[in-house]
Amino acid sequence: MVYDVTKFMEDHPGGDEVLLSSTGQDATDDFEDVGHSDSAREMMAGYCIGDIDASTVPKKTKYKAPQQPHYNQDKTSEFIIKILQFLVPLAILGVAFGIRLYTKST
Ligand code: HEM
């Protein structure tokens, strides 16, 4: 059922804010949770303006996790870079020592 409570907002004993917070959606649980009296239910019937056309209610869709971007699983290049980071300074050091030894002996 659809209810138009615009004229009832200020008169609602529970205040207009709670009504506003439940507009545009299924407020059945909100209404029932308060434990409204029978007279409140009768009152509510007076604000009914129609029923919901079930064909316009969007179907609940199952949540689909977004596709994860495909990361490069091949770690070979990373491994080579790590080895080079270690080997290149060693090679430079070796060349430096070599030059030093060579220049000393001559
Ligand atoms: C057309 C719809 C509604 C009508 C006619 C209505 C009517 C009433 C009435 C007559 C009362 C006084 C207590 C009683 O007699 O039960 C009341 C209290 C209250 N209503 Fe509503 N109500 C409506 C919708 C809602 C909705 C959708 C909510 C929640 C989002 C709500 C929340 C409350 C609250 C919090 C109180 C105060 C309860 C208390 O202080 O004990 N009402 N309402």
From TrEMBL:
SUPFAM superfamilies the UniProt entry points to: Cytochrome b5-like heme/steroid binding domain
Gene3D superfamilies, A to Z: Cytochrome b5-like heme/steroid binding domain
Membrane association type: Single-pass membrane protein
InterPro entries noted in UniProt: Cyt_B5-like_heme/steroid-bd (IPR001199), Cyt_B5-like_heme/steroid_sf (IPR036400), Cyt_B5_heme-BS (IPR018506), Cytochrome_b5 (IPR050668)
Primary location group: endoplasmic reticulum
Cytochrome b5 heme-binding domain location: 1-53
UniProtKB keywords: Electron transport, Endoplasmic reticulum, Heme, Iron, Membrane, Metal-binding, Transmembrane, Transmembrane helix, Transport
Superkingdom of this protein's organism: Eukaryota
Subcellular location: Endoplasmic reticulum membrane
GO CC terms: endoplasmic reticulum membrane
Residue intervals passing through the bilayer: 79-102
Region Disordered, residue ranges: 14-35
Pfam families tied to this protein: Cyt-b5 (PF00173)
GO MF, one annotated term: metal ion binding
Signal peptide range in chain numbering: none
Similarity annotation: Belongs to the cytochrome b5 family.
Protein name: Cytochrome b5 heme-binding domain-containing protein
